[in-house]
Backbone:
């Protein structure tokens, strides 16, 4: 009996030992980098940063909505249910259920999260190049939040950490002023950390940070601050206007001196309609393509985002920028050698006869795979011309206006070679209006018009269906309000 | 003390009465020898086992001793020796053996004392059905166990579902063969004739297996041999011919031409056939289906000495496919060595070792692109061959290719080499304590080889890999100025699946008067280490499978690529169980298991799984005195178990997102979080209550077991949408897996066994079982109304849903209400049904929401139009023995399930089922089948027109055997010879139009969608069983 007890005791001890052997199941997965097990080398930081750049490559939505919501273009496409969200925005009938707005919300927060992942781990390692990496990360966060605040107004502000799913319901919509404060802080930090030039094409520079900061100030009507930083870009950045307005947007002229901030795209990787956020090409260009097109120069696309006659007519007579910015398809065909052989069709989503020529699919700029999705054309988000016009507006509208400088900037844009419009000589509100007009024609088709109209208070008079007090911001996607479960109030009147 | 007294008494008796050897022979009801029967001198541990001739000899038997003769499946007998030296014993089968051993996990009990719900199936009953895989035979044998084929192709797996669908994830039960875990696929390695018994733990008492037990537990024990038995050689074999169980009713060329002409004319087009008198044309099913052989041979040598027992065997199985012959064939070699030795008087060592070599060839199956899809939809007016003897192109149906060419061009072979074994030591410390330690392993090496030759099936076929009929390669652009040819390729994958387990447990067993106590305490460690490496090489010489190996390809081809994966999961467990019995009247059992798994998040790495059960044997009560009932027991159990088959590392945030951005115009690979982690992620939890009754009536001729179960599984795993502000929607990112959602299964199981002797030599036994399944989704994650699954037709949207208040995977679509006969009917109905696409002859849909408009863009007019889950499944086994002749039949039925017919491709020129003969042709012609037209209609939307009753009854096996008289058999030196003819799946009764109603898909949410299933074969076999 004693022996039995002894054996039993031994056995149970063995079991107890096993209990403390819980380490058996506390093992890491093999050959797998997990999020908590990263940031061990400078390369890790660089790779996380590359991952944070990636969501910018969804900028086709920013470009489209900025145009289609405005008086510049219509949605187009195969029919009114083809990317229905754009048609609703075109008609100003958009509401809380809108796939495009929801995608934008999702992707910009993906960008925010990827930058926050870097900030969350900023103290894990010190190394030489870290300031630059953190500077670029700061810029990216500033960019993503600027998109969010520009579209939606007050949005939840999450900074320097990844938000655990369990904390979503306690997130409030941070007032736009506070979001802007964070944007300013991030962009200033980026500007402080970065150089004017980078040896690597595509990396964010000090100029990009300051120009976006200037834009953020402008969107808040902080003209004095805007003027200061934009002057810095103009005077110290080494930028200049490109000598050919029309070819500036071609792939071969990427990275010219006029490029302040562009989002890089390449055509070497195929793409799939199942995952727009995965694309490496600029979807806007392929979709702008002429529907059913068979002919020279251009290539077949989906006829999205078609410029209006209103925009076409907004150019002063003789302004070469009209024909450089807008393709009049019939005129183009008529001018070809064998017009009868050129074919194209119109979609039931609308037809104006015009196409967005700055970002139009060309037969010599096709990506691999489905080339509607894989255009290698970069998205020029901030050009030097935009910086000059923003600076002009800031100097003109700031409390201690400097119309001379404003006019000088404006005329530099107007009179440059390849545009060659007559210099203006105006002051005060006349100058303001001239700058606004100049912005429209200079930057036509680049996704800025709607937001310019909103921030200058002109949206209601220029956009059919625009309701003041409502359409200045887009509605928060209703599903996101529901999923957050945090009692967010929808934007007014939606 | 008692034992000592007994020994003294025994010695006294030996001295007093003298001893002598006793010889005897044990036979069964047919006078056939019964080997392996236990013969014991009552009150002692002295005894032996009968040999292959059913004979035994025990020395030194007291003249007044009583022999106890017992054998599983037979009624035990006692025989007073009375000084005889030669005895003859005839055992009669006992289907209601209350002393039959039931394995309950880390211990055993008897049918009589069982408190849980366990189905026991005798291996011999399965072997008799000639299955290729053991699960095939298990179908219909055990109440509560639903088994359906995942494919009828040889070597394909089956879906085993115990008591309904418990999860939207992996419903496969835990399968242990000699305590070694097998996955369902791996069961193919097992030779069914090696199996001694199968025990299926169905209720909460399976909780002794904790976090792996929620889907039930299947415990398979292989044959081990018997002590003190002369070597017995068993040889069995059969050879048979298989055919498809069914051919679809398709149009012949003449009918096809007539109907296509009508189709085009109705749409305003030109009829394609100027002369529709094309005769029968090509019967593509004739071309594709073939009679295929199946053969299987086993040899087993078993026996034992006083201290050891062994079973050694080998088998060969070869099944060719009814589609493609050896292109979908399966072949298995199998060798087993089981032996058990008493190393020391109290120390036993058991060794189990299985080696299997399997080879399986596969054709494209299921859905668009499969051989049978092409067969069904091919134009019957087209010839399979061109005049020069090469395969014809079927160019008039864009998605259909010549199935004969497709089979010829398919080279897809899997080879499995597998070693499974166990080393177990059992030490009997004393009468009360016994300790067991074991190590098990299961190592499988799976080699897949797929040769993709350059092929061309005609213009614009998606399956073309060559640019043209001359088989020139396509070009692909690798950079802006370089294009390279895409040659044929060979892909080879080697995957090793390895699991190992260490278990130790202590069993305690003691009886104090009427109190009987048993206890079990143990620990278990289980690990899985799986890894895989794949390589693809381009340009196999001569475009020929003879050279299809990576070693023969271009080593520097730009397109060559490799990939690999690995996963490691581990499970650590402790468990304890206590059982108490009061007399034979009351039994109580309780267990708890603690499981920890690497699959769970840090916050929930360990779980506890308790179970309690009890039984009351009413028939033992003094007040219960009725001659009508011989045995009656009430049982109840409640237990908690888990399902750990969740994605490995699901709780972690892995850096497998996509973070690619071009710098200097070159794509840089960054890093991003993929799926967001969830440190709270844990197992799915199943709580099950079971109430049962066991009844023996009519002098034990009838035994009845009935159970009612309610099984609720919560914490189902989903990846629902979450707020985007956590950042889960970047490239390659996804939302966290969360626990949320509940499904409930409840139902009744009934098993009735009847056996009787009708005449001197005529014995009949009938077994019937029925299981009802009521499956209902109880909850989904907050904010989620439903999840959608499956697909209907091409681009036709989803087909099924998981939604609260409905069974899993129910079909959502439009309800039809006949056919519009006239334009007036359409106009005057008062319900608008898209006028642009509705004409007389079209399906008339029901306005579910009363909006007076049929909504084709939203879901408001869709409703539940069927469920893939049967109301009931049934099995019926009938056996008869008359002298040496045996007859048996096994039926299986599934009742009340629906199937979505999803193998028709409604292209203008694709062939059709013959129900289209009855299409609408004018007012009053039919109210069932819509008109044929190329016009746009809504007839192709998912509606109940495509839902069919999937109920069926199938004669799974029928067999007639004859056991030759002993006198004849002895002349060839054998002890037993039985010859038989048998047929599997001979008859199927169903209204279902498709090939085979007995199928299911692995994913419970699409289990009822028939994408063009490879039917199971009907086979006619002849075989023999020979014992030396």
Residues:
């Amino acid at each position: 009996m004693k022996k039995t007890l002894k054996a039993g005791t031994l056995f149970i001890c063995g079991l107890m030992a096993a209990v403390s052997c819980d380490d058996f199941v506390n093992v890491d997965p093999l050959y797998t980098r997990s999020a908590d097990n990263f940031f061990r080398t400078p390369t890790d930081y660089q790779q996380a940063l590359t991952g944070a750049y990636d969501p910018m490559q969804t900028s086709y939505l920013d470009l489209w909505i900025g145009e289609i919501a405005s008086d510049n273009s219509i949605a187009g496409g195969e029919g009114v249910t083809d990317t229905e969200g754009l048609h609703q925005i075109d008609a100003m009938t958009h509401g809380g259920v809108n796939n495009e707005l929801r995608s934008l919300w999702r992707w910009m927060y993906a960008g925010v999260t990827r930058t926050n992942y870097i900030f969350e781990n900023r103290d894990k390692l010190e190394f030489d190049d870290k300031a630059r990496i953190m500077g670029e990360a700061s810029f990216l966060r500033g960019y993503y939040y600027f998109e969010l605040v520009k579209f939606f107004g007050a949005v939840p502000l999450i900074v320097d950490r990844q938000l655990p799913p369990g904390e979503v319901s306690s997130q409030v919509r941070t007032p736009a002023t506070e979001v802007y404060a964070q944007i300013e802080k991030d962009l200033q930090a980026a500007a402080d950390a970065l150089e004017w030039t980078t040896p690597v094409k595509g990396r964010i520079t000090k100029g990009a940070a300051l120009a976006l900061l200037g834009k953020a100030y402008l969107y808040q009507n902080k003209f004095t601050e805007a003027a200061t930083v934009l002057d810095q870009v103009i005077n110290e950045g080494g930028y200049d206007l490109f000598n050919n307005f029309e070819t500036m947007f071609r792939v071969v002229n990427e990275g010219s001196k006029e490029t302040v901030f562009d989002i890089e795209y390449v055509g070497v990787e195929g793409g799939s309609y199942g995952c727009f956020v995965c694309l490496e090409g600029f979807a806007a260009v392929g979709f702008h393509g002429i529907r059913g097109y068979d002919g020279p120069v251009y290539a077949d696309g989906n006829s999205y985002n078609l410029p209006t006659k209103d925009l076409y007519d907004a150019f002063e007579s003789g302004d070469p920028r009209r024909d450089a910015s807008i393709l009049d398809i019939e005129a183009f065909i008529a001018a070809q050698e064998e017009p009868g052989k050129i074919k194209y069709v119109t979609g039931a989503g609308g037809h104006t006869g015009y196409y967005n020529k700055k970002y139009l699919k060309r037969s010599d700029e096709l990506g691999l795979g489905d080339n509607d999705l894989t255009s290698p054309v970069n998205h020029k988000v901030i050009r030097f011309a935009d910086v000059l016009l923003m600076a002009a507006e800031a100097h003109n509208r700031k409390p201690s206006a400097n119309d001379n400088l404003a006019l000088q900037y404006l005329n530099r844009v107007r009179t440059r070679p390849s545009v060659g419009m007559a210099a203006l000589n105006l002051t005060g509100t006349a100058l303001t209006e001239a700058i606004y007009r100049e912005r429209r024609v200079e930057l036509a088709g680049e996704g800025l018009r709607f937001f310019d109209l909103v921030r200058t208070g002109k949206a209601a008079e220029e956009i059919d269906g625009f309701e003041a007090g409502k359409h200045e911001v887009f509605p928060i996607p209703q599903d996101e309000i529901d999923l957050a479960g945090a009692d967010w109030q929808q934007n007014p009147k939606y | 003390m008692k034992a000592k007294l007994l020994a003294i008494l025994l010695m006294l008796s030996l001295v007093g009465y003298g001893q002598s050897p006793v010889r005897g022979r044990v036979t069964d009801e047919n006078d056939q020898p019964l080997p392996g029967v236990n013969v014991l001198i009552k009150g002692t541990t002295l005894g032996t086992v009968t040999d292959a001739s059913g004979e035994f000899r025990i020395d030194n038997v007291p003249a007044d001793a009583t022999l106890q003769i017992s054998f599983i499946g037979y009624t035990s007998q006692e025989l007073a020796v009375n000084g005889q030296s030669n005895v003859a014993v005839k055992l009669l089968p006992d289907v209601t053996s209350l002393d039959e051993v039931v394995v309950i996990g880390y211990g055993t009990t008897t049918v009589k004392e069982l408190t849980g719900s366990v189905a026991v199936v005798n291996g011999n009953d399965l072997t008799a059905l000639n299955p290729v895989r053991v699960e095939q035979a298990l179908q219909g044998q055990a109440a509560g166990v639903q088994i359906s084929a995942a494919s009828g192709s040889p070597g394909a797996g089956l879906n085993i579902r115990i008591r309904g669908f418990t999860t939207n994830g992996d419903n496969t039960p835990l399968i242990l063969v000699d305590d070694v875990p097998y996955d369902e696929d791996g069961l193919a390695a097992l030779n069914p004739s090696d199996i001694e018994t199968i025990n299926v733990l169905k209720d909460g008492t399976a909780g002794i297996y904790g976090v792996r037990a929620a889907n039930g537990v299947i415990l398979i024990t292989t044959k081990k041999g018997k002590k003190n038995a002369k070597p017995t050689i068993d040889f069995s074999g059969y050879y048979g011919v298989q055919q498809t169980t069914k051919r679809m009713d398709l149009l012949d060329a003449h009918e096809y031409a007539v109907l296509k002409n009508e189709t085009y004319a109705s749409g305003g087009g030109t009829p394609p056939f100027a002369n529709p008198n094309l005769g029968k044309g090509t019967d593509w099913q004739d071309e594709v289906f073939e009679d295929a052989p199946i053969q299987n041979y086993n040899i087993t040598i078993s026996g034992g000495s006083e201290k050891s027992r062994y079973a050694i065997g080998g088998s060969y199985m070869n099944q060719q496919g009814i589609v493609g012959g050896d292109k979908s064939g399966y072949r298995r070699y199998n060798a087993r060595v089981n032996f058990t030795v008493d190393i020391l008087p109290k120390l036993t060592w058991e060794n189990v070792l299985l080696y299997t070599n399997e080879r399986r060839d596969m054709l494209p199956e299921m859905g668009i692109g499969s051989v049978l899809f092409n067969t069904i939809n091919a134009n019957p007016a087209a010839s399979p061959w061109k005049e020069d003897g090469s395969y014809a192109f079927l160019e008039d149906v864009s998605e259909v290719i010549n199935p004969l060419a497709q089979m010829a061009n398919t080279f897809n072979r899997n080879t499995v080499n597998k070693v499974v074994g166990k080393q177990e030591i059992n030490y009997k410390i004393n009468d009360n304590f016994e300790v067991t330690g074991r190590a098990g392993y299961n190592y499988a090496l799976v080699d897949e080889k797929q040769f993709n030759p350059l092929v061309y099936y005609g213009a614009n076929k998606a399956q073309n890999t060559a640019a043209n009929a001359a088989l020139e390669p396509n070009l692909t652009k690798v950079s802006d100025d370089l294009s390279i040819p895409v040659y044929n390729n060979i892909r080879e994958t080697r995957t090793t699946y390895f699991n190992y387990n260490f278990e130790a447990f202590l069993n305690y067993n003691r009886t104090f008067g009427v109190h009987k106590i048993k206890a079990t305490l143990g620990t278990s460690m289980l690990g899985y280490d799986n890894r895989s490496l794949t390589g693809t090489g381009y340009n196999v010489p001569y475009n020929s499978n003879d050279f299809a190996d990576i070693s023969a390809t271009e080593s520097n081809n730009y397109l060559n690529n490799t990939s690999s994966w690995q996963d490691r999961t581990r499970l650590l467990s402790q468990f304890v169980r206590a059982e108490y019995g009061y007399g034979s009247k009351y039994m109580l059992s309780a267990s708890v298991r603690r499981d920890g798994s690497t699959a769970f998040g840090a916050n929930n790495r360990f779980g506890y799984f308790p179970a309690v059960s009890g039984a009351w044997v009413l028939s033992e009560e003094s007040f219960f005195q009725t001659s009508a009932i011989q045995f009656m027991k009430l049982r109840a159990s409640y237990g908690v178990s888990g399902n750990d088959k969740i994605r490995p590392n699901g709780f972690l945030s892995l850096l497998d997102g996509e973070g690619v951005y071009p710098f200097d115009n070159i794509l840089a690979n960054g890093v991003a979080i993929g799926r967001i982690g969830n440190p709270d992620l844990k197992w799915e939890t199943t709580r099950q209550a079971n109430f049962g009754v066991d009844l023996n009536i009519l002098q034990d001729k009838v035994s009845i077991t009935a159970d009612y179960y309610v099984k609720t599984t919560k914490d189902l795993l989903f990846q629902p949408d979450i707020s985007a502000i956590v950042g889960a929607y970047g490239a390659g990112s996804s939302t966290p897996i969360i626990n949320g959602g509940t499904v409930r299964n409840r139902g009744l199981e009934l098993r009735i066994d009847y056996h009787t002797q009708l005449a001197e030599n005529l014995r009949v036994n009938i077994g019937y079982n029925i299981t009802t399944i009521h499956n209902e989704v109880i909850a989904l994650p907050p904010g989620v109304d439903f999840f959608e699954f499956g697909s209907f037709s091409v681009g036709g949207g989803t087909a099924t849903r998981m939604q609260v208040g409905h069974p899993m995977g129910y079909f959502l679509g439009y309800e039809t209400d006949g056919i519009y006969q006239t334009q007036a009917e359409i106009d005057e109905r008062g319900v608008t049904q898209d006028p642009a696409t509705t004409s007389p002859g079209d399906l008339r849909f029901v306005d579910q929401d009363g909006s007076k408009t049929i909504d084709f863009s939203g879901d408001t007019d869709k409703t539940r139009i069927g469920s893939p889950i049967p109301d009931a499944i049934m099995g019926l086994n009938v056996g008869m023995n008359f002298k040496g002749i045996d007859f048996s039949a096994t039926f299986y039925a599934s009742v009340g399930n629906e199937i979505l017919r999803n193998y028709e491709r409604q292209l203008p020129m694709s062939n059709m089922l013959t129900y289209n003969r009855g299409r609408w042709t004018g007012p009053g012609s039919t109210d069932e089948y819509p008109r044929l037209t190329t016009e746009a209609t809504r007839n192709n939307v998912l509606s109940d027109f495509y839902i069919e009753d999937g109920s069926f009854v199938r004669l799974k096996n029928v067999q007639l055997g004859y056991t030759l008289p002993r006198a004849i058999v002895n002349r060839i030196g054998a002890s037993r010879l039985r010859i038989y003819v048998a047929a599997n799946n001979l008859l199927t009764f169903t209204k279902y139009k498709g090939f085979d109603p007995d199928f299911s898909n692995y994913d419970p949410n699409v289990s009822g969608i028939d994408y063009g299933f490879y039917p199971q074969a009907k086979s006619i076999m002849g075989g023999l069983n020979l014992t030396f």
Notes: The beta strands of chain A are 73-76, 259-263, 290-291, 300-301, 304-307, 326-328, 354-356, 379-383. The mean pLDDT of chain A is 92. The radius of gyration of chain A is 26 Å. The first strand of chain A starts at residue 73 and ends at 76.
